Amino acid sequence: MGCLASQVMRSPLMRRFGLGAVLALALAVFGLTPTASAADPAPAELTFATDSATVTPGGTVNLSMTLTNHKTYDVWFVYQTIEPTWLTTQRPDLKYSFTGCSLATANGSTPCSGIGPADLGTDYGATIPPGQSRTVTLTLRVAPDSGCNGNIGFYSYYYAEFSDTTNISGGPVYTPETRVLCA
Q1: Which residues in 25-41 are b (16+ Cβ under 10 Å) and which e?
Q2: Each residue's pLDDT tens digit, 54-86
Q3: I want to staple 80 with a disulfide (CB 3.0 to 4.6 A). Which of 25, 75, 120, 170 is the partner?
Q4: CB distance 65 to 173 below 8 Å
């Protein structure tokens, strides 16, 4: 009898548990499960854009890099690299170089401190306040004797430090590819 009483006493608990599980499953299936608010964006975000999807040998393309600060603290320091993608390196006949660099400011563009592929971070200028962005534009020149019918693309890694002493590393972030067309 003790066993029967034990089973009878467990039965309502198991029924409630089973009912709860069924309700939770139904809510999950229909997308009504409680969720956190919209996911916070990354503390800093790097995006790329080009002013043209194609170029002919001898031409130029502007590659814009925008670093946005989504955090409530200033970005104090940025380190960034930019390198050609593996597919780009497989076309040694594609000849190109970065020939210019400018930082967009409220008073117009100012020249960058450097255009090498190692440290582009200083090109973003002074601190980046919360909610603001800085855009650096590199000028990519395709040599007149470059091969054609190939794509030039790059990828970038970055590291940013904030005024609250936190930091973030990101990447790889890929640029849009630029197609080198025959003239």
Answers
A1: eeeeeeeeeeeeeeeee
A2: 999 999 999 999 999 999 999 998 888 889 999
A3: 120
A4: no
What is the C-alpha separation between 18 and 59, in angstroms, rounded?
69
> CB-based contacts of 52: which residues, under 8 Å, 6+ apart?
61, 62, 178
d(CA 20, CA 24): 6
The string of DSSP letters for 43-110 reads SEEEEEEES-SEE-TT-EEEEEEEEEE-SSS-EEEEEEEEEE-HHHHT-TT--EEEEEEEEEETTEEE
Residue 66 has a pLDDT of 92
Integer Cα distance of 145 and 96 in angstroms: 10
The pTM for the full model equals 0.72
The single residue listed with the structure tokens 């972030």 is 173
Q: Give 10-residue mean pLDDT values along the chain (183 residues).
A: 51 50 48 48 88 96 93 90 92 92 84 64 80 91 95 92 92 92 84
Please give the Cα distance from 122 to 105 (Å, whole number). 14
- Going by C-alpha positions, the residue among 162, 159, 157 that lies closest to residue 70 is 162
Counting residues of the chain whose pLDDT is more than 70, the rounded percentage is 73
